Amino acid sequence: MPPKIAEVIEYDVCAACGACEAVCPIGAVTVKKAAEIRDPNDRSLYEKGAGYQVCEGCLICSRICPVVDGFIENELSNVSKFFAARSKDNVGSQDGGVASGILKALFKQGKIDCAVGITRNEKWEPEVILLTSAEDVERTRGTKYTSDPVIAALREAFEKYERIAVIGVPCQAHSARLIRDNVNEKIVLIIGLLCMESFYNEVMLETIIPEVMKVKLEDVRKMEFTKGKFWVYTSDGEVHAVPIKDVAKYARNPCHHCCDYTSVFADISVGSVGAPDGWNSVFIRTDIGEKYFDMVRDEMEIMEDPKPGLELVGKLIDMKRKNNAEHFAEICKKFSFETGIRNEPI
Question: Which of 130, 67, 86, 136 is nearest to 108 (CA)?
């Protein structure tokens, strides 16, 4: 019998987080961005798929898949502390540089050996990398709105390092938490990012930037989603913006079924929504998150009770749920296993 992830792939709700590739003991799963080829008998042909016929039935992949696990009804229920922060070394960062600042400080203090992150080249093409020093972190500054299977890199990281940090969007934070709880305790810290949706790299670079934004890719210096719009800043100092609805339709199909905006399964969540310009909103969710943030607190400026605060975060949570919860419920009816949005603590 095929593992549960086979159905997740078949119904095109695979988040492509890469967790199954990271943990499969025989390498029967490969995750890439395209999904045209799904031959269950020939691993050499995969673009995204699972080798059912070579599967040995351990079913680890089903225990670490965020779609199989489902979502949490109240994703703010485990937030013990909420505040705004910015790194004292935030040059080149998207907002307050908190996520990068945490990793840099932990590397300098010798608290982590490796971090899994994503960088991009001058063509805005993403690349998943293993960071092993504070200097490496500089390469990952800034938000990337295109998707890559970040968690797949843990396969190599588990072989080489003992204290690993993961930074990623909600589906990646979710699967990292499931891996830590069920498979491998080498993940010592999970930093989750706020995310409404993400895009295939080709769609962003070949459709959204040139056709929707009317901008040349080589002129782009920064992209961001904020204040209800998608913004692109170019090298000539111009600012281009369109309503989010004009680009949301181009998001990856799995994103239209996601019901996690704030990375509820992370130890620490970091975003910009809820904090003033130039600051990050910070959500402490676990004792682990509190312990590691306390280690780096001296490297941060802190703003207690930032505005617009959790009220705005809550509105965006509701907006994402309104659009996606019904879609996910319809898919759940097709699964042979039970999953959904559950009303329980993590």
Answer: 136
Residue 217 in 3-state DSSP? Answer: helix
Sequence ranges of the domains in the chain = 71-198+251-342, 201-248
- Do residues 43 and 176 make contact, with C-beta atoms less than 8 angstroms apart? no
- The token duo for 215 is 């901008």
Which pLDDT tens digit goes with each residue over 187-218?
999 999 999 999 988 899 999 999 999 999 99
Neighbouring CB atoms inside 10 A of 108's CB total 12
CA distance 50 to 47: 10
- Mean pLDDT throughout 311-329? 94
The pTM score is 0.91
> Is the bond preceding 308 in cis, omega lying within 30 degrees of 0?
yes
Q: Which CATH architecture has domain 201-248?
A: Roll (3.10)
Q: Which residues contact 310 (CB under 8 A, 6 or more apart)?
A: 76, 79, 82, 274
